Each structure stands twice: as structure tokens, then as C-alpha cells.
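Morning run. Coffee first, then this:
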Amino acid sequence: MNQASGRPTDREYSGNGPSGKAMQEKLVEFANLLRENGVRVSLAETLDAFSASEVTGLIERDAFRAALRATMVKRSTELPVFEELFDIYFSGLGEIIKQASQSVQNALSMSDQEFQKFLDEVTEMLKKEGKNLSELAKKLLENNSGELERKINEAARAVKLSGIERTIEENYFARALARQLGLDKIEAEIKNLREQLEKMDVGSELKAKLEEYLERRLKALDDIIRRFVRMEREKRDIKQKEDQKLNQIGEKSFYYLSEDELKKMNEAVTRLAQRLKNVITVRRKRAKKGRFDIKRTLRQNMDCGGVPSKLRFEKRKREKPQVVILCDVSDSVRNASRFMLQFVYSLQDLYSRVRSFIFVAECQMNYVLQAIRELLEKGYTSVECRQEVHDEYNERVDAQNSRMVWSNVEVNNWYRNTAGRVTSTLPFRLVDYWNMTRTLEPSEFVWTR
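And here it is:
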């Protein structure tokens, strides 16, 4: 271990030995964290991550990140969660300890070489004067980042720090973690060590440096504890923030959703579809072979005193239900339709038969295609709706709109223009609109050759 930087060496990341086991424990914890935040990671994928991390090591951070991303993430919608959690988790406690050490070094105005030399002097001093120090106090003063991280993680598991959920709980867990680490005892030990410094035969400059170092390392430990607790809370915040955003989108009208919000909605729909795939109906059937059905076998052999002379089996058959989705994709509800179509598309391999009928657009296109067919078959070059038919249709639209809520002066809506006219082009029932557009009436148009 490089004491000044607290950076582990390549050997410490070998899959064998205590440090390799510790790394596997961290990967298991990271996999659990991904699951808590909606990323589905199987046991097999966690084992793949073990193998990949042994190949890449941790020194090359980008390679390690890519290895975990390749083994643990299956869908593009899970990438943002993975990236954020990776940065928090693997730049977490180790990075906090490293930054705390760097702050102490900067406060003492030492270069890396000077600080390493100073730490060697501290280690020698502790061998003579620090025999009564606790193990954690020694590791703190020696700047042994790896051991310090391990002990803090052990204490965190003891106080169940993973259960933190709200900001208001930070102080409680920080105090609990400090008690578990024995911070009061460490303070008393360092105070006694500072008193011993007065009796030591060292130069005044070194003594002043040691005094300042002891004080700052003690404050650094308190800062590490508080920042670590806050980081653990932020890990759990990711899912809460994501859920809060989705709840806000859910309460918002589909019509007013932005492109980013629509993207979020589509991601949520995809995740919902994946969850539904786990609840497909399973029907049991009698069969001559398959899984042994002990209950039916016992019932069938009651007349034989329970002797299983008549064996019964069952066969599970997955049944995919059929679903029909009727979607209105007119302009006024296009975002709601986009939601439904995305949902149906995501469920195609879940259902045995998916049929979606795009109703309004199909009615319109069917009517237009009839007009084009009439034009081509009879050699016309253009077609135009008769003025009286046009006017009559608009009168029907206005009459129908006048009986709907959009025409109420107390209702603000985007259908009504500045002149006060409601411009909704489809105030009719769908069955009426289907009848109106079902068959083309050539006499309603002017055909030109």
C-alpha cells in the first residue's frame, strides 16, 4: 500500500487472498445496490463481474467500469443509473479518505515526498510511544487508507447504515458510526499522545508539525464519517429521485409532456413491461410424464392404503394471453397514444397475439385512398370537395361542439381560438366517425379531367 496516496497496488486486486475476497464482497454489495435502484442483476452476472474484475484490475478505472457495465447492465435504459451509482460507490469511501489525507497534507504545506517521509517518522514514533493506541487510531495516524476503509465499512454494517433513507437521519447515523468506531476513545488516545510529545526529545519544528498533524487527523476522521454517511444516503436517493420524477410526469397531462419527459415515460413503460413478463399465466395440465404430482398421486391411491401404485404427473404450460388495443391517435391525444403504443410494443413477446388498430388515422386514410382510387380508375386529374358539402360539414362540427364542454365560456382550453370558436375537428363519437368515412360518396366532390 502506498501510504501517501492510499492507492492500492495491482497485487491487492488479485482474485485470491483476503483482498480478493474483500473485492468480491464489494461487487456483491454493488450488485445489491443496483437491484435496489431498479437494475436487474442476476447471480450469474455477478459471477461474471468477479471474473471480469480479476482481468481488468482496478487501477485502470475506465476498463474496470466498462467490465462491470458489460457484465451487469442489459438494457440501455439502465445505463444512467449504473453510471451514477458506479461513481458514488467506487469513488466513495476510498475517495473520501484520500481527499481527507490530501487536505491534511496541504495544510502541512508538504510535497508528496515530504509527506511520505513525515509519515515514516510518524510510524517510527508510534512504534515507541503508541503501544497503547487502538488499532484504528494507529491506522488513522499511519494514513493506512485501505485498513481505515475496511474498519469503517465494518462499523457501517454493524450500525446498518444501508438502512438510511432521509436527510434528517444523517446526524443519527453519523453519531452511531462514531460510537461504533470508538471515536471518543480515539480522541482520548490522541490527547494522551500529544501530552507525550512534550516529553519527547525531538526538534521544535517537528514537534509543532506532529501536534498539528494529530489535531488535523482527528478532525479528518470526523469529516470522513459525516461525508460517508451522506454518500450512503445519496445512493438510496437515486431511486427516490427517479420515482419522484416519474410521479410528476404521471400527474401531468400527456399533451404537455416535453421530449425529455416522453423519453422518461418510455423508459418507465419498458421497465413495466419487463416486470409483467414475470407474471405470465401458468396452467397445470395432467400428463403421462413430467413433474411428479405427489398430492394427486396420494389422492388416487387412497383405495390402496396410500401405496403409490398409480403415479400421477403434471405438466406446466405457459399460456400467453391475447390482447386487443384500440388506440385513438388523433392530434389532441397523440402523447397518450404514444404511451399506449410504446407499452404494446414492449409487450409483444409477452402475449401470444397483439393487434393494435390505429382507429382515427385508419378511418381518414381509408377515405382518402377511396378518393385516390376513384381518381385513378376514371382518369381524373384532380378532386375537390364541393363548397356546400364543406359548409354543411363545418356546421355539423360547430353544432356538435356547442354541446360539449369546450364551448363553455368558463372552461379554458386550447380548442377555442381567439375568435371564440371551438376548432376541435372530431367532436363525433368514434362509431359515427367510422360510418361517415366508411364509404366515399363521389357526388360530394368536384372531379376534373
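The chain has three domains: 10-241, 259-358, 360-448. Good start to the day.
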